[in-house]
Design a protein that fits this description.
Length: 249
């Protein structure tokens, strides 16, 4: 996996992943997962973090956020990760690292790629075989969308609807349910590494633009063709060809 990317570009959507140290199941109890959710809510309240989706599993988290140019993401991750780890170690009389390395962030184009990434997050625990439908996993953005909270809401519904071009949250939820149903019906539940191992995912134009924007930190990054006509920006050094055209940094 690529090293965690801490450089955020205003206006972009970022899919953030973070694993527990040595992939231990440190979040296997719901009480511990709910503390992560509490600090996610505090990050939205304190820093204006725009949350589009999330899920807390037994040994890692997924978080989909929109960078609105307020430097909220880095501050939010420091708060959420730090407080979750401190509280867990104190409760369990534990010492040492809670998280594995640094979190990883992937820029996601705000078109059908954003919709695909959202559903990919929703289906995480179905892929893991823990539940048969995303609604059954309570520590998730999909569960919150199905059961809106009067207080302590974490999802930024206004931004989510605007980015995905829906007029109301109800319209978004109905369509999201159909996306999930299609994936479950088709059996399309395999892991897609582009959402967690890349630094950017979108069409070719988006991938090349992000490659240029992030070139100062690693000029060797390449725009790699993926399925469904998508491209990802990875830490790949070998050249390759697409449609007879060689893509290079």
């Amino acid at each position: 996996m690529a090293r965690a990317n801490r450089h955020f570009i205003a206006g972009q959507v970022w899919h953030i992943t973070q694993r527990c140290h040595q992939k231990q199941f440190l979040l296997k109890f719901q009480a511990d997962r709910r503390r992560w959710l509490y600090w996610l809510y505090q990050a939205r309240r304190r820093y204006g973090l725009s949350v589009l989706n999330y899920i807390v599993t037994s040994n890692h988290i997924h978080l989909l956020v929109h960078d609105q140019g307020n430097n909220a993401i880095a501050s939010a991750m420091q708060l959420i990760s730090g407080r979750t780890a401190q509280e867990f170690n104190k409760r369990h009389g534990r010492s040492g690292a809670f998280w594995e390395d640094r979190y990883h962030a992937t820029a996601v184009q705000t078109d059908q790629h954003l919709a695909r990434c959202m559903v990919y997050i929703d289906l995480n625990m179905v892929r893991a075989g823990e539940v048969s439908h995303p609604e059954e996993w309570s520590c998730s953005g999909y569960h919150e969308a199905k059961h809106p909270r009067r207080r302590g809401a974490r999802i930024d519904l206004a931004s989510t609807c605007r980015l995905l071009k829906f007029e109301t949250p109800a319209q978004l939820l109905t369509t999201r349910e159909s996306w999930i149903a299609d994936q479950l019906c088709n059996g399309s539940l395999e892991r897609e590494s582009l959402w967690t191992d890349s630094v950017a995912v979108g069409n070719l134009e988006f991938a090349l633009a992000m490659k240029r924007a992030l070139a100062f930190s690693n000029p060797g990054r390449r725009a790699t063709p993926e399925k469904f006509g998508s491209f990802s920006v990875r830490e790949q050094l070998a050249s390759y060809r697409v449609g007879g055209i060689t893509l290079s940094p």
